[in-house]
Amino acid sequence: MGLQVSSRCFFSTGSLNSGNDDDNVGEGRRLEIDDDDFLPERPELQLQGVDPRKGWNFRGVHRAILCGKVGQAPVQKILRNGKTVTTFTVGTGGMFDQRTVGANDLPKPAQWHRIAVHNPMLGGYAVQQLVKNSSVYVEGDIETRVYNDSINGDIKSIPEICVRRDGM
């Protein structure tokens, strides 16, 4: 199955005919071009299985999109392997209907999310621009970081939103 596109263009100073110069080239004449040669045929898409037992090709979708307020100002840390990571928190929720004011209309508690930015350029931008209570839009992968607590030796896990590459 091929794809055919027909284009129209207007010309005023030339001819596409190489052998016949008898044609008068006037302003505003239409030229029809079939773009069969420009657009190659696309192969048929084949369905691919999504089986997590087949290896690392299946990643799944573990994404989060947050719009909220910065709770803790971003802090940039340098890890032992030399990479930088910037962490801050974002609060979502905690809003109430302002049209009706009363004792029963208390705000819902805010949900706090830990954000880890692994891109050094984006992390530097976050440190410079984000302050407490500024609005922010964050999109990243949901990951769980596991570490050993140095104080009591317990193994702890923290869910966080990891922003990698270009901010996605």
UniProtKB/TrEMBL annotation:
<keyword id="KW-0238">DNA-binding</keyword>
<dbReference type="InterPro" id="IPR012340">
    <property type="entry name" value="NA-bd_OB-fold"/>
</dbReference>
<dbReference type="InterPro" id="IPR000424">
    <property type="entry name" value="Primosome_PriB/ssb"/>
</dbReference>
<dbReference type="GO" id="GO:0006264">
    <property type="term" value="P:mitochondrial DNA replication"/>
</dbReference>
<dbReference type="InterPro" id="IPR011344">
    <property type="entry name" value="ssDNA-bd"/>
</dbReference>
<protein>
    <submittedName>
        <fullName>Single-stranded DNA-binding protein mitochondrial</fullName>
    </submittedName>
</protein>
<dbReference type="GO" id="GO:0042645">
    <property type="term" value="C:mitochondrial nucleoid"/>
</dbReference>
<dbReference type="Pfam" id="PF00436">
    <property type="entry name" value="SSB"/>
</dbReference>
<dbReference type="GO" id="GO:0003697">
    <property type="term" value="F:single-stranded DNA binding"/>
</dbReference>
